[in-house]
Each structure stands twice: as C-alpha cells, then as structure tokens.
C-alpha cells in the first residue's frame, strides 16, 4: 500500500478477495437469553436482537489472522524479492501467531519478538507455525529495539500489530461479512459494538460498515481499567495508555496514529465496563451460548448486558457484537481468580 492510498471500502474489499479461501468466514450467532437481557426498545417496546460475530472461530482463534494474512500476502504479491527476506513483528500473543501462520502459508520466514514473560504456550504456538521467536525483556521499548535489530540483521519487513493500513483493511473484512450475514438472517444491523485496544479492528470495521451504511451506529467497548480510548474520545485529544490493568489483556494497547483519527471521527461513543461485568459476561457466554470467548471478546457483550445507559438508547433493535477471540488460558479461568 502506497503512502497516498487511504484505507477505504476499496482496500477492505481487496483484502476480502485476498484472504478468501485462507481466512474462515466466521459464524454469526444469536442468543434468546442474551437478547432478552439486553431488553426491549425503551420507546416502542419492540423486542431487540443481539447478533454475535464469532471471530473466536477464526484461524489462530482470533480476528488477527485477517489483517496479518492480508498484509503478508500483499507484500508477497507486490514485492516478492523483499518478502523473501521475511517479516518481523512484536507480539505477546494473537498477532504473533497470526503473522507466523500467514508467513508459513505464503512460504516466507517470520521473526516474532516476544517478551520473556509471555506464556510458554504462546511461544510454542508461534514456533509451531514455523516462525523464529526472539525473546526480549517485557517492555515496549525492548520490543521495538529488538525488532529493529532483527530488521537490520535480516532485511525483514516490519508488520505492526494494528497501526498498518493493510492490517486495518484486513480486519475490516469481518464487518463486510457481518453486515451481509445479518441481512440474510433478517436482522439488518442498526449498530455495532466493537472492542478496542490498539484500534485496528475497530477502525477497519468503521471503514467498511460506514461505507456500506452511513447511518449505522458504532460504539467502542473498553475496560474501565484501560480506558485510554474513552479518555481520548471525551477530550478529542489522543491520550496514551499508561499502566492499564484489566483481565481483558488483549485491550491494553494504546491507539495508533492511523486508528485514532478514524475512531475519533466516527464512533458515537466509547463505553467502559468494570472487571466484574467483563467476568460476568464471559461466564454467561460460556454457559448460555456454549462457546469459548476470551475476556477481551466479552467486553462489548458486557456493554449490551450491563450498561444501563447504553440499554436506554432508542433505535437499537439489531445490535452486532464482535467476539474478537477465544484464546483462554485454561489454568487461569477469569471466574477462578483469587
């Protein structure tokens, strides 16, 4: 993607064509129980429906594969000599696995810088996809410095976890699917609730959804203990994430220079939820929908289920919720915290 090429419906559609046959078209599910907890429209008393886009069923167990595969495959298509030198990224989890698998499928090397504190199971997963894991001390500066060292030594191309136009466009493909699937189910979406960390998925979904339906209402969902997006949105000035703390460990990252303006100008609101409500939502989804989602994925559901101010809004008859992933440490289930 050239510097002049903006993230748009065209780039998202191109990403959808690129990932077709490689990424899963994930299911959209409904739940009578969860929809009933969301309640009825406060003005018309009409029943309301929650629809869930299950990226926990995506390859590597998270939406991250969409953006990673789009970025890696485009690099291979347009600059094969450069791509042959490999790709490098830094990640403590899902993005690293996604990049490793995308590189494997495209037949090029991958180097994933991971903090020494990352769970061994995640390091093993990245290695299992054929990537080289390069460990560093667990600080952002160390990640960036180590990635720069690998780039200098190998000539590999850096792919940012979220602040990259091809990654954002790839993540936006889930919204393309979601809007069409909701129409086919007879529940065209009035609104989307999307979890936000670095903002790659949210900004990609905004780009696709707003281009298809300019009237769709989009809400970001964030843990109260990692509420930099909410602070930024309220002040209309970028506020970095400082010492975030939440069980939703996939949402602890600061917004990016590409993602923040898209979010600032297009979301209706950023809703925050407590740790207790994240845990309650996660458990409810496991118990009533019979699927595994990670706490980060349950954050937007917590908004719909427990945020009384949000539930009081009119016109939210069909609300789409993105389940971002399902990678859970089974030794540390959220409701078994000491």
TrEMBL record:
Q: Which GO terms describe its biological process?
A: D-serine biosynthetic process
- What Pfam families does its record include? PALP (PF00291)
Q: Where in this chain does the record put each Tryptophan synthase beta chain-like PALP domain? A: 43-325
Q: Which cofactor does it need?
A: Mg(2+); pyridoxal 5'-phosphate; Ca(2+); Mn(2+)
- Keyword terms of this UniProt record: Lyase, Magnesium, Pyridoxal phosphate
Report the InterPro entries cross-referenced here.
Ser/Thr_deHydtase_PyrdxlP-BS, TrpB-like_PALP, TrpB-like_PALP_sf
Does the keyword field hold Cytoplasm?
Answer: no
Magnesium in keyword set: yes
- Show the GO MF annotations: ATP binding; L-serine ammonia-lyase activity; magnesium ion binding; pyridoxal phosphate binding; serine racemase activity; threonine racemase activity
- Which PANTHER family does this entry report, sorted A to Z? SERINE / THREONINE RACEMASE FAMILY MEMBER (PTHR43050), SERINE RACEMASE (PTHR43050:SF1)
Q: Which family does it belong to?
A: Belongs to the serine/threonine dehydratase family.
Question: What's this protein's name?
Answer: Tryptophan synthase beta chain-like PALP domain-containing protein
Q: Which organism is it from?
A: Spizellomyces punctatus (strain DAOM BR117)
What are the leading ranks of the lineage? Eukaryota, Fungi, Fungi incertae sedis, Chytridiomycota, Chytridiomycota incertae sedis
């Amino acid at each position: 993607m050239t510097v002049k090429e903006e993230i748009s419906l065209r780039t998202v559609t191109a990403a959808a064509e690129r990932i077709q046959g490689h990424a899963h078209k994930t299911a959209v599910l409904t739940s009578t129980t969860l929809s009933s907890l969301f309640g009825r429209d406060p003005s018309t008393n009409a029943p309301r429906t929650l629809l869930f886009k299950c990226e926990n069923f995506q390859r590597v167990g998270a939406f991250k594969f969409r953006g990673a595969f789009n970025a890696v495959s485009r690099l291979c298509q347009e600059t094969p000599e450069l791509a042959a030198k490999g790709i490098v990224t830094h990640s403590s989890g899902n993005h690293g696995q996604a990049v490793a698998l995308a590189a494997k499928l495209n037949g090029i090397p991958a180097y994933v810088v991971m903090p020494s504190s990352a769970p061994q199971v995640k390091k093993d997963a990245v290695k299992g996809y054929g990537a080289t894991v390069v460990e560093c001390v667990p600080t952002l500066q160390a990640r960036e410095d180590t990635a720069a060292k690998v780039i200098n030594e190998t000539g590999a191309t850096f792919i940012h976890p979220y602040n990259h136009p091809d990654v954002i466009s790839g993540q936006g493909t889930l919204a393309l699917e979601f809007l069409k699937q909701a129409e086919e189910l007879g529940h065209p979406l009035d609104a989307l609730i999307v979890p936000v960390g670095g903002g790659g998925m949210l900004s990609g979904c905004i780009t696709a959804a707003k281009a298809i339906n300019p009237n769709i209402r989009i809400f970001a969902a964030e843990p109260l203990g990692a509420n930099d997006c909410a602070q930024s949105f309220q002040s209309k000035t970028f506020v970095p994430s400082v010492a975030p703390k939440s069980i939703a460990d996939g949402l602890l990252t600061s917004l990016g220079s590409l993602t923040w303006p898209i979010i600032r100008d297009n979301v209706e609101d950023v809703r925050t939820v407590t740790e207790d409500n994240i845990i309650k939502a996660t458990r409810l989804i496991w118990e009533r929908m019979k699927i595994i989602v990670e706490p980060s994925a349950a954050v937007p559901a917590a908004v719909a289920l427990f945020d009384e101010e949000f539930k009081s809004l009119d016109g939210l008859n069909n609300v789409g919720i993105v389940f971002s992933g399902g990678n859970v440490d089974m030794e540390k289930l959220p409701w078994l915290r000491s």
